[in-house]
Every structure is written in C-alpha cells, then in structure tokens.
Design brief:
Number of domains: 2
Distance between the termini: 55 Å
Shape: elongated
CATH superfamily of the largest domain: P-loop containing nucleotide triphosphate hydrolases
Strand order of the largest sheet: 2-3-4-1-5
Number of helices: 15
Radius of gyration: 24 Å
CATH class of the largest domain: Alpha Beta
Structural class: alpha/beta
CATH architecture of the largest domain: 3-Layer(aba) Sandwich
Bound molecules: zinc ion
Strand content: 5-15%
Order of helices and strands: HEHHEHEHEHEHHHHHHHHH
C-alpha cells in the first residue's frame, strides 16, 4: 500500500483499492464514500486525495499533504447542505458546475467534495448527473453519504462506491495506544465509541483524560510523566481547555469534600475516585483552594481570547505548585 494509507484503522479493503488506483492513475471522475457516521469516510477520502496529488503518494509531510489534511488545498473544494438547511438544492449544484470546469491551480486534478450527498434533492441529483455525463477532464467528484438509498440509480451508476465500516473497539484501542494514549483512556474511549473512530479520538483526548493524567502524575509525584502528553496534543482549542479546567474544578471540589468527610461516596463531581484518593493526602488546605481557584480562572480565561497553549502551561505549572504548597 502507498504511504498515504498507513496508519488508517479498519477499512482495509477500501484503502487497498484506493491505494492501487492512486498508484495506477486515471482514477475516474466520481466516487461515493458510503458508510455510517464516524466510519472514516472523510479520512479515507482525504488520504486518497493526498495519494493522487502528492509526489510521494501521500507522504504526510509536504506542503500538498499538509494543505489537504487541513482542508485548505486550493484544488479541493468542499460543499454540503448550507447552514440551517436540510437539503442540497439544484441551484447549489448548478453553481458547482462552474467550479467543475475550472482548471486546477496547483495539482493535476481538482476535487469537489459533496458532504451529505444523500441530502441532494432529486433535481439537484439530476443536475449533478448532467455534469457527470460529460465530466470535465481534470475534476473528480467525491460524494459522501451514510447510505446509497437516497441517491438515484443513475447517479450511482456513474460513481465508484467505496464502502466504509465501523471499526471494532479492540482495533480502536490499539490505534489510540499507538498514538500515545494511556491504556485506561484508550479502553474507555474505545468502549464508548460504538466503532466511531473520530469520536473515540475526541473522547480519548478530551479534557477529562488530560486532567486525569495530570492529576495522577501529580499524585504519584511524577509531574514530568504527564508534561509531554499534556502539551503535545491535548489542547489545541479553547473549548477543550475550558472543559479540562472545569473537570479540574470538579476534582478540586471532590478533594475538598473527601478531605472533609473522609468518605469518597460523598464526592462525585469528578468521577475518578482512585485519583481523588491518591491526590488528597498530598494537598494542604491552602493548596487545595488554590487549585480550585486556578481551575476556575483558567476556565474563564479559556472562554475569552487568551492564548490557549500559554494558559494550558500555566494550568500545569501552577497546578503542580498547589501540590507543593
Ligand atoms: Zn506529501
């Protein structure tokens, strides 16, 4: 398989097929990526596009690969139902026709991605069909849908279907551990994911996991164990950091309750009794209140326009200070 498809979990048949196509060239003009939500349709399509555009068949490092991964390559256009609308109308597809006949800016091919293609009205599908019947040479349409049912047989007959399937929890767990996630977080996320790899990644990398990891490492007096994980990828956006800070606030409340009553049953904001029990003896009363304050301040600042990575670093460093107060 070409390099672009390495590291994809599940959907092996689809990846093999697309890899062969990308290597051979002459890929055709229309594809339908069809499968349940979270089964990896977009990931597979994006790797396929990279494999056709990148000189190294999807190296994952060059500018082309990077632009495709970020969804901002000038030769990859993405459309879907307009905001607040339930369907894709005929006008939108007619607009696409103009786009379809433009020549590529950088690459040899131009890709037009249609999200939720099953939401195209019948007229919209017929308009698309007109384009597909006389396909512009350098444009490839990529349709995404959960099922084939809502698409006209005439449209289906002109698209190559790539079916994607949900991935097993065991495979998801293996994948997450491979990405550096710890065993417990990977297990939990895989179990809750219902085979949805995108969701599993979100769950595994959520604020809960990051804070839990941080607190555990503090409780074990090994802050450096969590430091790298905490900064390598945890907090890329403010929502995530805000959520993590709120979790930490919940943990601080639990710690206060637990220290007060000595009964873990009374605590219940945070959800990881083991971490609470381990951390409690290490925190002075003052340190504990400082931790709660730090969490509240961070959550508030994250919601405003503050620098997310600086805030995360501040949370980590001052959090560790609370343990040593
Ligand atoms: Zn590349």
């Amino acid at each position: 398989m070409t390099s672009g498809f390495r590291g994809i979990v599940g959907n092996e048949n689809g990846a093999k097929l697309l890899s062969r196509l990308a290597e051979r060239g002459g890929i055709g003009n229309a594809f339908l990526f069809c499968g349940p939500a979270g089964s990896g349709k977009h990931l597979l399509a994006s790797r396929f596009i990279a494999a056709t555009m990148c000189r190294d068949r999807g190296c994952g490092r060059c500018r082309t690969c990077e632009l495709i991964e970020k969804g901002i390559h000038p030769d990859v256009l993405r459309v879907g139902p307009a905001e607040g609308k339930k369907s894709i109308g005929v006008e939108e597809i007619r607009e696409l026709k103009k786009e379809a006949y433009k020549t590529p800016v950088e690459a040899d091919l131009r890709f037009i991605l249609i999200d939720e293609a099953d939401k195209m009205t019948v007229q919209a599908q017929n308009a698309l069909l007109l384009i597909l019947e006389e396909p512009p040479e350098t444009t490839v349409f990529v349709l995404f849908a959960e099922t084939r049912e809502a698409l006209l047989p005439t449209v289906l007959s002109r698209t190559a279907t790539v079916a994607t399937e949900r991935v097993s929890p065991a495979e998801i767990k293996k994948y997450l551990i491979g990405k550096g996630e710890d065993e417990a977080a990977a297990s939990r996320a895989a179990r809750l994911s219902e085979g949805n790899i995108g969701r599993a990644e979100n769950d595994a990398f959520d604020g809960y996991a990051a804070v839990s990891d941080m607190l555990r490492s503090f409780a074990l007096k090994r802050p450096f164990a969590a430091y790298e994980r905490f900064f390598s990828r945890k907090f890329t956006n403010r929502e995530e950091l805000s959520e993590a800070a709120e979790k930490l606030y919940g943990a601080a409340r639990d710690l206060i309750v637990y220290k007060n009553t000595g009964n873990i049953e009374d605590a219940g904001y945070y959800g990881d009794d083991d971490v609470i029990k381990k951390a409690a003896p290490l925190l002075s009363e003052e340190g504990l209140f400082k931790l709660a304050e730090l969490a509240a301040e961070t959550a508030e600042a994250a919601d405003k326009n503050c620098n997310v990575s600086l805030l995360a670093m501040n949370l980590f460093i001052k959090g560790w200070e609370c343990f040593n107060d």
